[in-house]
Amino acid sequence: MVVWAVKKLFFDEDTEKKPETAPTNTETESHRKEAETTHKIPAFHSIPAEIPVKFAVVPIPSAPKPFIPPLSVAPAPVPAAIAIPKIVAQAPPLPPIKKKFVTREDIATVFYHGARPLTRPAAVAALKSLGFGKTAAYDALSPDGRFAPWLQCAPDGIITWKG
């Protein structure tokens, strides 16, 4: 039922029928078409093969000439090639990037070889003062990190060195 309704709505041939018109006289129709095509202006104009280009002349301002007082004596000859030193402003080269890794000795130094316990933020600050980054310091002091066998982490957050 639904399929029939859809076909009736979209494919109904009764509503789409248009009457067919045929020319009454085919000879007059062809003459009319010839007359239309001969009197039309072409859609595209012919373009010349080469379009002349006008060059723009822009005056270049010159630097003001310095005043040179007249000389009473003939000037000395100037050598043909004068070396003008180049002045190049360069930034100093960047220092080479050295990857600094936290070692067991660095951790032992921070904890004074077990003599002082520290909280994790205090130990990170001590490692940062030795030149390590914050991320490297936190990774080194993590309870399951590389140095976990030598570190004892208490539940209150105090870390001690047991190395």
What does this structure look like?
The structure is a single chain. The two termini are 87 Å apart. Helices cover 29% and strands 6% of the residues. With 163 residues, it is mainly α. It has a three-stranded antiparallel β-sheet. It contains five helices and three strands; from the N terminus they run αααβααββ. The longest helix has 14 residues, at 26-39. It has a domain at 104-161.
Summary tags:
single chain; 163 residues; 5 helices; 29% helix; 6% strand; flat; mainly alpha; 3-stranded antiparallel β-sheet
Q: Give the spatial strand order of the biggest sheet.
A: 1-3-2
Helical coverage, percent range: 25-40%
Number of helices: 5
> H/E order of the elements?
HHHEHHEE
Kindly estimate the percentage of residues that lie in beta strands according to DSSP: 5-15%
Query: Could you report the average pLDDT, rounded to the nearest whole number?
Result: 75
Overall geometry: flat
Radius of gyration: 47 Å
Question: Which residue ranges are poorly predicted, with pLDDT under 50 across at least 5 consecutive positions?
Answer: none
